[in-house]
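Hi,

Apologies if this is the wrong queue. I'm a grad student, and the batch job for Alcohol dehydrogenase 1 from Dillenia turbinata produced an output file that my downstream script rejects. I'm not sure whether the problem is my script or the file. Here is the sequence I used:
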Amino acid sequence: MSSTAGKVIRCRAAVAWEAGKPLVMEEVEVAPPQTMEVRIKIAFTSLCHTDVYFWEAKGQTPVFPRIFGHEAGGIVESVGEGVTDLAPGDHVLPVFTGECKECAHCKSEESNMCNLLRINTDRGVMLYDGKSRFSINGKPIYHFVGTSTFSEYTVVHVGCIAKINPLAPLDKVCVLSCGITTGLGATLNVAKPPKGSTVSVFGLGAVGLAAAEGARISGASRIIGVDLINSRFEEAKKFGVTEFVNPKEHSKPVQEVLAEMTDGGVDRSIECTGNVDAMISAFECVHDGWGVAVIVGVPHKDAVFKTHPINLLNERTLKGTFFGNYKPRSDLPSVVEMYMNKELELEKFITHTVPFSEINKAFEYMLSAEGIRCIIRMDE
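Support response: The file is valid. Your script probably expects a header line. Output copied below for reference.
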């Protein structure tokens, strides 16, 4: 048992008091973990576009004041009642979605969409009692997707925590809590490109680059990056991308361009933009008879996917994925081992590192499109 177990911890947290305004470093009180909860000392966290999207309060019910952050690595400080598979000192990755191990989804080998702990962006409190574990002068500060890693300590449901190899460097593997794993798994677990195949990746942000990395690991012979920003191609080469197409530079639809480049279509296509037109192109560019397209990006709530049914009848397959079809507790430790075994390279995803006190710089990097992933070092 740690000396702080069962006690309120006072620590620093970067609080978002209102939408789009710089985070404010505050002293917060972090309550002890309750039943099936774990309190974690965060060592490193990173900034994801999802944090920025909800910080800007685009298109959803704003919940403020709030502590954002959902990609992180840390060490268990204490555990609540009923927690048996984690103990103080364990190295862990908190995850925005969970695995209760009891619902139909968790018992299925085909799904990772836990009924109890599936991502909920509107909920700012813990499931156990509907209350926040964060407060300032008695006023609650709300959680974000059950993780809230922009705090030196946080409380997370045990089902949203992956226990990992204690030798894994937390400043590297923290990026596996969300986007990198999503893109990687979209390729390895869902698209499953055979060795020597041709793969197109739509969108060369962090998730798309992770999808390309999955294609590289799979032994794809050609990896075609599709993006509207030409400068992204040079960086994408590090992740195995061999060719680049900018749809704006062609008079015909990009799916036709890709079909001409690949003698009828690519074998696998992964869409990582969230743009419905890119989704349609990603599907229509795969080869008939065996082509598989995987949708990763999250579209606008009113977006409609339209394609001619003949594209499906001609034996093209369209799939979707959530968190790369990885179960957080069961599967994420094996992704960490891929890094430890030098099968997966994480260093090339990390573009910046800033101290916790300068967390707003991470937002500036992301907003200026400079950053793929910015690591925030909690211990200054």
